[in-house]
Amino acid sequence: MPSVKIMGVVVLALILALSSPDAYAARESVQVTKLANPVTTDGKWTTPSEWSDTNRVSMYLLQGPQSTGYVRLKHDGDWLYLLVDFVSDTTSASTQGTGGGGDTYDGVFVAIDKHVNDTKTESDESFMLQWKNGESAPNLNGYGEVSPVAPTVGGLMSYNATNDPDSEKTHVIYELVIPMTTFADPSAVRISVWDWSRGVNMHWPKGPSHSWNTTYFGDLVFSDVVVPELPSPALLLLLSLVVTYAIVRRRMCATKRPE
Asked: Which of 134, 197, 214, 223 lies 20 to 30 angstroms, CA to CA, from 15?
């Protein structure tokens, strides 16, 4: 009986731990690979291969109906390129309320912790990028204990999903270019997108809704590794035919026995 009681206590403790609002997976990270394909900052996949040299990272739903969004990052040593592909946001919304609310905009927010420090609510040197539909350009501001002067950033957003491998159905895409001087190695970020018309909010990494505590940021790991592109369909077909021929040839030889 004592062992049964102990097991019951352990199970209860696990349930309470997993149901805690502050129970999240281990701190996440994403590899920022070296650019192989140039980026044209036009708010879309300019070519099918433009962002194929990156790792696709899924965002987490924090509010609203089931939705899908992806983040892709790469760098060339001078600039960090960020693509936020909000596949589920298929309608343009740019109304911003005043005072009491009424916001129905589409927007992206990127909080940057230049010097990773998960022991404070705000880091010593941080930046917040925000961009709402209807604004001409993204806006980057310094905050935290130092409140550094923020460099100029570039970007464009569109609802043009041509060439997008995840979905060619009309949806919002944010394409951002941020100076590498904004980051250290390692740095950390928290990326958020809003589709206010549907009440949807997605983040990367996972964490409490609307929290910008650096404890819940994800680490950027800068790398000189280039993500190899997948072989073209024609090359895959050729390889398949070669393998098939080799298998058939081997079986034919095996069936020919000397008399």
From this structure: 214
Beta strand 187-195 pairing with 218-222:
antiparallel
Assess contact for 150 and 128: CB atoms under 8 A: no
Strand partners, 237: none
Mean per-residue pLDDT of the chain: 78
**Amino acid occupying residue 3:** S
Identify whether the C-beta of residue 154 lies closer than 8 Å to the C-beta of residue 137: yes
Distance from C-alpha of 222 to C-alpha of 80, rounded to nearest angstrom: 10
* pLDDT band, residue 208 (cuts 50/70/90): confident
Does residue 138 contact residue 131 with C-beta atoms inside 8 Å?
yes
Q: What is the pLDDT of residues 224-238, one digit of tens each?
A: 988 765 444 554 465
Helix (H) or strand (E) holding 132: strand 126-132
Q: Is the pLDDT of residue 159 over 90?
A: yes
Percent of the chain with pLDDT over 70: 67
Instruction: Tell me the C-alpha distance between 220 and 240, whole Å.
Output: 38
pLDDT single digits (tens) 167-194: 999 999 999 999 998 888 778 999 999 9
Q: What is the pLDDT of residues 236-251, one digit of tens each?
A: 465 556 556 555 565 6
* Contact status, residue 43 vs residue 177, Cβ threshold 8 Å: no
From the list 155, 219, 152, the residue with the least C-alpha distance to 188 is 219
Domains of the chain: 27-234 (2.60.40.1190)
CA 188 to chain centre: 13
Query: Which residues, 6+ apart, have CB-to-CB distance to 147 below 8 Å?
Result: none
Q: What is the dihedral of CA 41, 42, 46, 50, to 10 degrees?
A: 30
Helix intervals (H) in the chain: 2-19, 233-255
